[in-house]
Amino acid sequence: MMQSENSVEDSLHIRKLEVTDKEKGFIELLRQLTVCDSVSDEKFKERFEEIAKYGDDHCICVIEDVRSGKIVATGSVFIEKKFVRNCGKAGHIEDVVVDSSARGMQLGKRIVEYLADHAHSMGCYKIIRGNSIDINIQHKEDARTRVKKVKNGISIINICHVVPKALEEFLRGSRHGLVKSPHGEKHIQDLGNETDLEM
């Protein structure tokens, strides 16, 4: 059983979007998130090349199931250059979606972590995640703004209308307000309509 689980995990490769991903179901996947009309090969290539001109300031990543050659998850981050915070940068994570056939494997969490790592490598002091639809679930709840300040000083602000299960599991803590994560422990402080997670 363990070998089977490892085999599935090994077949799910996370990487940046490639122009050939249109043929692997990328547009169909986006339709599970929001309205996404038919896009011709020509239009897809044109938009892909337009986005590519932004370089690392606009990163779209995907998870491909190499067994089927199908794109099963995606998300994007755009780097905003600001005057505040000593001409700092903020990352905006959007369009995170996991295929209905691949939910429950924390692929949404892998996408968000990949994009957050990219934003950190670009020098962002905060990351704002703004999907209006949850990544991979069945159980929805009204969202509160969640802020997670990690040890390297980055704040992640989740402003989803519903809390994605992947992030909810990541942020879930004990009744004492302590949350475990790969980055250490976070303390939660309730601030009315916001929840501030300090590390």
UniProtKB/TrEMBL annotation:
Membrane topology: Peripheral membrane protein
Keyword Transcription: no
Gene Ontology CC annotations of this record: endoplasmic reticulum membrane
This enzyme's EC code(s): 2.3.1.4
Molecular function per GO: glucosamine 6-phosphate N-acetyltransferase activity
InterPro entries for the chain: Acyl_CoA_acyltransferase, GNAT_dom, GNPNAT1-like
Pfam families: Acetyltransf_1
UniProt cross-references to PROSITE patterns, sorted A to Z: GNAT
Reactions performed catalytically: D-glucosamine 6-phosphate + acetyl-CoA = N-acetyl-D-glucosamine 6-phosphate + CoA + H(+)
The protein's enzyme class: transferase
Pathway annotation: Nucleotide-sugar biosynthesis; UDP-N-acetyl-alpha-D-glucosamine biosynthesis; N-acetyl-alpha-D-glucosamine 1-phosphate from alpha-D-glucosamine 6-phosphate (route I): step 1/2
Occurrences of domain N-acetyltransferase (ranges): 12-199
Keywords (A to Z) from UniProt: Acyltransferase, Endoplasmic reticulum, Membrane, Transferase
Subcellular location: Endoplasmic reticulum membrane
Source species, domain of life: Eukaryota
One GO term (biological process): N-acetylglucosamine metabolic process
Similarity comment text for this entry: Belongs to the acetyltransferase family. GNA1 subfamily.
Subunit and interaction comment: Homodimer.
Protein name as it appears in the record: Glucosamine 6-phosphate N-acetyltransferase
